[in-house]
Amino acid sequence: MMYKTKDLFSLEHSLAGEYLREFEYPWQALAGIKSYIQTLGPKLEGYREVSPQVWVHETAVIAPTAFLGAPCIIGPGTEVRHCAFIRGSALVGANCVVGNSVELKNVILFDNVQTPHYNYVGDSILGYKSHMGAGSITSNVKSDKTDVVVKSGKEKIETGLRKMGAMLGDHVEVGCNSVLNPGTVIGPNSNVYPVSCVRGVIPADSVFKDKDHVVLKKKDRD
Q: How far apart are CA 3 and CA 23, in angstroms?
């Protein structure tokens, strides 16, 4: 199954690439996102520190109603739209969209990620060119408040984390109004049907229709 850092992400498509390379499993990186941003921010060229520990690239477009909480980094060409709420500890890559009423907290968004409409993304990592459909969210705390466990079939990996949302590989498409439950890991190039409730590990190159119907994509034929 595909749940290791090296399998999920093209690390050259993020300022956090070298940082993530240190971890076998991507959720191990969540605890250090804040300190990594605080260390990286002052070293960046072409960025303005618009408020303490908030670094915005000179080509990024920030709506006047957006809130940028410290620490955070907003990459080149990225658009942060009206009423977006970046609570802090957010590293947003190049050419991303953080849309209206979107909330980000303790996240890494690789380059070209889109969270365009009414999304909550917390304690999560979204890979290169992944996309969250309107209203789709990451749920990052279990209802019983116990530590999150990543489940792949009969295999269970204890994360030791009370808060963990979702790990989306490169080119993942999440359908509108879907909920990604704590500990969800979706392999690269996979699609999630709208209004889905997803948990566990979803293989790469798959289509998630519901929990009992996860099918591999058909290969293009000559």
A: 12
Reading the block at residue 46, the tokens are: 């072409």
Taking the C-alpha atoms of residue 176 and residue 164, their distance in angstroms, rounded to an integer, is 21
Beta strand residue intervals within 29-84, DSSP E: 47-51, 54-57, 61-62, 67-68, 72-74, 79-80
Structural domains in the chain (count): 1
Contact 93, 73 (CB under 8 A): no
Residues with pLDDT less than 70, the chain: 1-2, 219-222
User: Is there a domain that residue 221 lies in?
Assistant: no
Cβ-contact 20, 221 below 8 angstroms: no
Residue 119 lies in a domain: yes
CATH number, domain of 179, equals 2.160.10.10
Residue range of the domain that includes 68: 5-216
158 forms beta bridges with: 149
* Interval 162-218: pLDDT, tens: 999 999 999 999 999 999 999 999 999 999 999 999 999 999 999 999 999 999 997
Q: For the purposes of burial, counting CB atoms within 10 Å of the CB of 42, is it exposed (0-12), middle (13-18) or buried (19 or more)?
A: exposed
Residue 182 CB contacts under 8 Å (≥ 6 apart), including other chains: 139, 140, 141, 142, 148, 163, 164, 165, 199
Which residue type sits at 208? Answer: F
